[in-house]
User: Fold these one by one.
Assistant:
Number 1:
Amino acid sequence: MGDQMLTTVDWARAQFALTAMYHWIFVPLTLGLSFLIAFFESIYVKTGDQEWKKLTKFWMTLFGVNFAIGVATGIILEFQFGTNWSNYSWMVGDIFGAPLAVEGIFAFFIEATFFAVMFFGWHRTSKGFHLFSTWMVAVGSSLSAVWILVANGWMQFPVGMNFNPDKARFEMENFWEVALSPVAVQKFTHTTSSAFLLASLFVIGISALFLLQKRHQLMAQRSMVVAAVFGLVASGFVAFNGDESAYHIAQRQPMKLAAMEGLYNGQEKASVVVMGIINTSKKPGDTLPVFHQELKIPGLLSLLANRKVDSYVPGINDLVYGNAERNIVGAQQRMVSGKIAVAELANYKAAREKGDAATAASALALFGQHKQDLGYGYLNNPEQAAPPVAITFYAFHVMVALGTLFPLVFLMVLVCAYRGTLANQRWLNRACVACIFLGYLAQQAGWVVAEVGRQPWAIQGLLPVGVASTKLAAGHVQTTFFMFLTLFTLLLVAEIRIMMQQIKIGPEA
Amino acid sequence: MGRNGGRMISLSRQLYSFYRQGFRSMVVGRTLWKLVAIKLFIMFAFLKLFFFSNYLEHNFTTDRERSAHVLENLTRMPSAP
C-alpha cells in the first residue's frame, strides 16, 4: 500500500471521526433531555402546578432546538460508508442493512406522531395523552439508538455470523447472538446512561446560570434538584456499566485495555494508573520508560480486568509479540495464520473462476482453519496491531476523572438545595456552568477510547481499516472533510446561538 | 364507505388541522424548520449528489460484480491499516 493510499485512508478516518464527534454533540442531549422533560411533565401532571408546566415547556424548547439542529447529521455517516468505506459497507450489509433501515423508519414514525403531540398538543390533547407522548418520545429516542450501538458492539466483538467467501460478506447466523452480545448490551447501557448524565449536567448548568443572573430562581432550583437526582442515579449506572465495560474489554479486546492503561509489559497484580504523563516516544518492543511521571494503585487493574487481584493482565508487548509462558498468542503469530487465510481466499477465488472444484474445496478448507486471523494477514508488521497509546490513555483518564467528578457535583447541588442555599452558592453555580463543557468533553473522550482504542480494526481481528476503505483519490476525501467541517461548525454555531437566545428569553417564551 | 369511511375522513381532517395549527403557531420552530430544510438540501441535493455516490452502486451493475470486486480487494490488498 503506497503513501497515497495511506493518505486516503487517513482522511477517510479523520472525516468519519469528525462526523461522528459532531453527531455525538447533539445525540446525547436528545437522549437524556427527553427523559428529564418527561420527569418534569410528570410532576406537572401530578401536582397541577403551572410553574412545572412553564418549566417543562422551557426545557422542551431547548430540546427542540438541539433535536432540529442535530437531526440527520448521522445520515452523513451512512453517505461515508457507501463512498469511503465501500468494502466494509458491502461486507457487513447483510448484518446491519435491514435493522438500521427499520430503526430509521421506526424513529420517523415515533417522531412524526408523538413528537408532534409533544410540541403541538398542549391545548389540543388531554394532559394524560400529552404526558404519554412525552414519555414515548423519551423511550423512542433511546430505542432508536439500539441498532447503531449493536452494530458498533459487533464491530468490536464480531459474533453470530459467518464469512461467505463467495459473496465476500459476513452473513448473520444467529440474530440473538448479535443483538444480545455482552459487548452490544454494555455499549447500549453505558452510552445511554452517560447521555442521561450529560443532559443532567446541561440542565444543572443552564439553571445555575439563571441563579447567577438572579433570574427564574424557582424554576432553576426545581430543575436542578430533579436533574441532580437523575444525574446521580445515571452516574451510578455509568460507573457500574463502565466497570462491566472494562471487564469485557479485558476479555475481548485486551490490546485496547493495555493501551487505556499504558501497560506495555503484562503483569500479575497489575496497577491502575490514576494519573500519568505518558512517554510519547515509547514504542512496542523498546526499552524506553512508559511514563515520565505516574501515580498507581497496585492490583486494581487485575481486579477490574479479571476480578482477581493477583491475576495476570497482558501488556501491549505480550499481545504484539506473544508470550509463550502465559500462553498468549501475539499479533506476530496471528499474522502468519492471517496471511495463510488471505492466500487461501485468493486460491479459492482463482480455482472457482477456473471451475477447479477440488482445488477450491481444499483452499476453502484451509481458509476455514485460519479465517479467525484474516485481518492480521493484511498487517505489514505486528506493531501495527497496537492502537495509538497516548491518545487512548489520555482520553480514558479524562473520561474516568470527569466521571468521578460529576456525581460529587450532583451531591453538592442536592445538599445545597436541601439546606436552601443553592441560589447563594456562586462558586458551585459557576462550577455547574463549567460542567456543561466538561460533560461534552467526557462524552467525546469516551468515544475516542472506544474507537481509537480498537484501531487498526474496522472489524476486530478480521478487517483492518485500510482494507475496509475504498480506493479513492485523497483529494476527494480531503475536500469533503473540509466541507463537513464547515457545515457542522455552522450548525453548531447556529445551535449555540439559538439556544443562547432562548435561554436569554427564559421560560416566558 | 358508510359510517367507518366517514369516521376516517373526519379523523384525517382532525389530524390535518392538528398539524396545520401546530405548524402555524410555531415561533422558534419556524427558524428551526428553515434550518432543517437548508441542511437537508445541502446534504441530499449537493453533498450526496455530487460527492457521495455509493461507490459499488455507481461502478457495478449486479451484486455478483460487487462481491467479485470486494473479493478482489480482499485478496489483492497488499497491506494494512
Number 2:
Amino acid sequence: MTRGDLVVDRARRAVTRAGRPVHLARKELGVLEVLVSADGAVVSAEQLLEQVWDEHADPFTKTVPVTVGRLRRKLGDPPLVETVIGGGYRIP
Amino acid sequence: MLSELRHKIRGRRSVRARIALACAGLFLVTGGAFVAATYTLVDHSLPATAVVNPASINKHFLQACYSGEQNGTLPGGQVPKCKQAFAIAAEFGAAMQRLDDLHQLLLWSLGGLAVATIVAGLLGWAIGRRILVPLHKVTGTARRASQEHLHERISLDGPNDELKELADTFDDMLDRLDLAFASQRRFVANASHELRTPITSMRTLIDVAMAKPARTTEGLETVVGRVREALGQSEAIIDGLLTLARSDRGLTTRELVDLEAAAQDGIDQTGTSARASNVAIEADLSAAPTLGDRVLVERLVANLVDNAVRYNVTGGSVQVETGTDRGQSYLSVTNTGPLVPEPKLASLFEPFTRLDQRVANSQGVGLGLSIVASVVAAHNGQLQADALPKGGLKITVWFTTTAPWPIPNPARAPDQVHQNMR
C-alpha cells in the first residue's frame, strides 16, 4: 500500500517514508493501515478503536488520540495525518 | 598415537636439552672470556725477558767454562768470553721459565673450564627438569580434562611466577568450562522435565476421564478444557525453547528496531492481564532506535513487561522507560514485587529458574529472562539487573543506537535516499 511517499508493507510489517524505514508499534501500524485503506476518507476514533483495538479496550480513554499522536511524530514532516474536528482522522 | 606420544616425548626432551645446552654454552663463552682475560693480564704482569737466539749458545763452550771455573783451570784470556756466555744462558733460562709458567696457567684454566662447562650442562639438565615439572602437570591435567573430569584442577603451588600464572589461567578456564557444561546439563534436564510434565498430566487427565463408567458431556468438556490448558503450556515451552535456540545462534538479519515501538506493543499486550491483577503500568517512552532482529527484540521487550506484571504484587506498579543516552538505546523495566536476594539475581537469567524454586507452577514456564539474556547477548548489548531494596526488580537493556531517528526529508527523492543509506 502506498500513499504519496509512504509505503506500507503489511506482510513484513515494514513502513517506509521517502525511503527511510519507520518502526511502528502494532497499534500505530493498525491505525496507519486503516487510514491508508480509507483512501483519503475520514475515519472516526470509534471506527479506529473498533478495528484496531480488541474488545478489552476502554472506549473512554484517550488511547486513540495518543496513538495517532505517536504515529504523527514517527512519520515526521510534512504532516501526513490530518485531524478533522468533530469527525476523526484522514490521510488526504 | 604411538608416534604422537614419541613426538611429545622428543619435544619435551628437546626443551630440557636446550636448557642444558644453553647453560653449558653460556658458561663456556663467559668462562672462555675470563680465561683469555686472565692469560693476557698475567702475560703483561710477568717481567719481560730478552729475546735470545738458542743458536747463539754453544753448549760445549759453556760446559768447558763451567768445569774450568770449578777446577781453576780457566785460562785468563777466556774469562770475559765465559762471563758473556753465562749471561746469555741465564737470560735464556728466564725466558724458558716464563713460557712454561704461562703454558701451565693456560692448561689448568682450560681444563677447569671444560670440567665446569660439563658441570653447568648437567646442572642445566637438572634445572630443566625442575622447570618442566609444572608444565608436565598442566599437560597432564589438560589431557585428563574431559567433559566428565572438569572438576580436576592443577592448583600449582610455588612462587608467583609465569608458570603459576599459566596454571592459574588454565584453572580459571576449567572453572568456566565446568560451569558452562553444568548449566547446559541442567538446561537439558530441566527442558526434558518441563516438556514432559504437561504431556504426562494430559495423559493422566484423559486416562481418568476414559476410565469413568459414566461419561457426561460436561465432564468431558472440563477435561478437554484442561487438556487445552496443558497444551498451551507445552506450546509456550516449545516456543520459548525455539526462540532461545534462535537467539543463541546469533543474528541473521539486522533491521531498524525501535525499542519504543516494541515497548508500546509489550504494554498493549499485557494491558488486560495487568488490569486483571490490578497492576498499573506507567510508560515514559521516547525513540530508542537500534539495529537488530525485530522478532527477537519484540520478544525480549514483551518478556520483560510480561514478567514485570506477572511477578508483581496486587496494586503494584510497573514502569517502562525507553530512550537514548550516550550513544546507546535503552529500555528499562522496573516493577514492585517480592524481594529478590542478591545471590539469586544471576540465576534468574538461567533457563527454567524462578524465584520460588524450580516448581512448575501455573505461572510462566521459566524461560522469559533467559531469552532476554540470550537476545541481549546476540545483539552485543548489555543487560543490567538490580534488586530493589523494597522488593521488585529493575532490568535495563542497552543496545547500540543506530543513526538518529530517521525524519523523512521531502527535498530528497526516494532513490537518492536509498543510495545514501547504502
Number 3:
Amino acid sequence: MALLQISEPGMSPAPHQRRLAVGIDLGTTNSLVATVRNGVAAALPDQQGRTLLPSIVRYLPDGRAEVGYAAQTHQSEDPRNTIVSVKRYMGRGLKDVAHVESAPYDFVDAPGMLQLRTCAGVKSPVEVSAEILKVLRKRAELSLGGELVGAVVTVPAYFDDAQRQATKDAARLAGLNVLRLLNEPTAAAIAYGLENASEGIYAVYDLGGGTFDLSILRLSKGVFEVVATAGDAALGGDDFDQRVFCWVVEEAKLAPLGARDMRKLLVKSREAKEYLTYHGEAPVSTRLSSGEWVDLSITTEKFCEITQTLVQKTLGPTRKALRDAGLTVGDIKGVVMVGGATRMPQIQRAVGEFFGCDPLNNLDPDKVVALGAAIQADVLAGNKPAGEDWLLLDVIPLSLGIETMGGLVERIVPRNSTIPVARAQEFTTYKDGQSAMSFHVVQGERELVGDCRSLAKFELRGIPPMAAGAARIRVTFQVDADGLLSVSAQEKTSGAEASVTVKPSYGLEDADIERMLRDSYEHARDDMHARALAEHRVDGERLLDATRGALAADGDLLSPQERGEIERAMAALGAVVGGTDHRAIKHASDALNRVTEDFAARRMDANVRRALTGRNIANLDV
Amino acid sequence: MQNHFELFDMAPGYALDTAALDAAYREIQARVHPDRFAQAGDAERRASMQWTTRVNEAYRTLKSPVQRAKYLLELNGVDVAFETNTSMPPEFLMKQMELRETLEQAGEAKDTAALDALRTELRAETLALERALVEAIDERRDYAGAAGLVRKLMFLDKLDAEIDLAYESLEA
C-alpha cells in the first residue's frame, strides 16, 4: 500500500487517510485520553463506559501491574505496592517531596529522581506513569481501530525541565510518539476558546490533584498567546485531603498510624472533602486495624478554616502572573476554571472575589484539558486543512541560568519567554592556560544556586592555552516547543575545536529507557525488530509525504539538478520503505533528509517573504 | 542577515507601531512555527525551529522599550555601555536613592499602597524617558545623547523588577 502511494514527481498525492492522534491528560488523581472525531473532541471511555482512569498503579508479585479502578480497590489493603499520585514524584528527588513521612511507600533515594521499592522491584516514577499511559494508549487503539501516529501529552505549566523530561520519557516508554508536550491551562484555553469563540484576555485557574497553574492568555482570531504563567508544582487537591487527615488525627488523638491505616484514613478524608462540595457536614468514619473506631464529623466551616491558607496560597502566583503580564484584574475578561479541585465552593468564592467576576465553569473541569490536547493533536497530525488551524504561542514558566562565581545565578533565559527560544552568553577563563571550564545549569527565580533546581553539570574541555580572560566561551541555551532545554558551549577564538551539547536527563539515559522497554512485561514478548521496523516505516512514509508536498508547493525554488537529486533520494527511500530491512529504511530516510536541507531552509525563507507580502496586500485593501 | 526591523518589514525607529509589529509577528509565526511542521522531515523541522527562535527574539527585542533602544543604538554603532559607563547626572542618582529608600520602607512596613504609589511614579518617569528617546533617536538622531537616556531607563527597569520582588515577599 505504501508503495502504491509513490507518485510521479509533481503529481499531487492522493488525499491521505485521517491520521489517528490523541490528547492525553496525565493527571495526579485521574488520567484520560481524548480524540477528535467528525470535528468534535471527545474523551474515550473504557469497555465499562468510564472515561476517567484513576492514576493508580498496583504492582503484583509476578511483575504485572494493575492500573486504574482495579488498583484503586486494593489501595488500602496493599498500600506499599499501590502507587497513587505518582505525578508528584516525577523528576523529583526525595528531598523535594513534601509529606514523605505520611506516604506509605518504601522510597529509594536516587540521583535526580527518587524511586519506589515494590514487590515487583524498584520502580522509577517514569515507569509507574508509563503503566498508566500504556493503558490509555491501548484504550485509544482499540477504540479507534489502528495504530496512533502520536499523542499530545499535557503537563502543568509550572513543571520545570526535569518534570517535563520525565513525562516525555514515560510516554516514550509507553510506546507513544509525543507530538508535543502541552501546558495544561493552555490546553484548557484551546478547548474553552474554540467552544465559545472567545476573544480578549482570559485567565485559566487550574487546581489539579497535585499542581496549581495560573496562566494568562490573549485570545484573538486564530491565535492563542500565553502572556504569563505562574503556579506551584506542589499544591493541589491532595493537600486539602492532607489537611482533613491531619485534623482527624489530631481530633481523634490517634497514635502514629501504619501504612494501611494511613491510606484508609486518607481515602476517607478525600471522600469527606468531596462530600462537602454539596453538603454542610461530612462524616469521617472508619475502623482502624487496631479495632479502634474513628467516628467524626467535619463541617464546611471547619473545612474552610483548616484549608484557608491553601486557598490563599493560590492567589500569590495569580498576582505574580498578572504583574508579569503587566495587567490588572480589570483587564481580565473571564476566568476559566480547570481541575477537579476547583469544584470546592471556597475556591470558587475566592476566585470570584479576587477577579470580581463569576468564574467560568461551563466545561467539565476534569475533561477540558484532555479535550484541548486532542484538538491540538489533531492539528499537529496534519488533519486540519490550512486556514482552519490556529497558532499557539506558549512560554517557559521558570527562568534558566548558569552558576557563576560565589554560587550566584546568571539568568540567561527569563521566565515567560515565548518558546522556542535561544539565548547566548559569553564567559571567559580566569586562569592563564586554563584548558577546561565547567558549567552548572539551573532553573528558578532565586539569586542563589542552592535555591534553584539543578538541571545539568557539564565541562568544556580542550580550550587552547591562552592568558586569563582571553578565551571567549559562548554558552547557548535552546528551549524547544515542548519547553525542553539543550545547552551547548563553544570556544569562539579557536572555532569548533572545543564544543559540547547537553540535554539534562535526570539519571535516565537513552540506554536506560531501552533497557526498561526490554524489561517491561509487555515488551519482553514483543519483537524489538518489528517495533523498530514499524517506527522507521512510519517515519519514512511521513518524510516522503512531506517531501512530495514540498516539491508540489515550492518546486520552483530548486534547480533541475537539485530537484533530480531529491527525486533520486525519494525513489531510493520509496524502494525500501515497504520492505523489512529497518536499517535500510533509516539509512534512506537520513539520506533524503540530508539532500533536502537547503531546500527546507529556502522554503522557510520564502514562507517569511510570503507572510509579509500577504500582509501588505491586506493593508492596501483597507 | 536582515535586521529585526527589516524582518518585520517596518521602518527602523524608536516610536513603535505596536499593532503593525504584532500583525507581522503573527503572520510570520503562522508560517514558520514548529506546530506547522510536526509532520515534516527533520530538515524542515530544524529550519522551522531556527526561524521561530529568531522571530521570537526579534519580537521580544522590539517590544521592550529598553531593548529596542539598545538595539537601535547598536545598529547605529553606539554601545550603551551600561556596565562600564557609570557617570550619571547627580540629580538623577539622588532621585534614584530616594526611590530605593521608599521601596525599602514600603517593603519593611508591608505597605502595598506605598508600593502601588511608587510603581505609578516610576511608570510616569519611564514614559517621560521614552518620549525623550523618541525625540533623541527619531528626530535628532543624537545617538550618543540617547545612550545616556537608555542608561537611565535601565536604572528604572531594575527598580521596577525590585518592586516586583517586594510585592512577592509581601504575598509569601
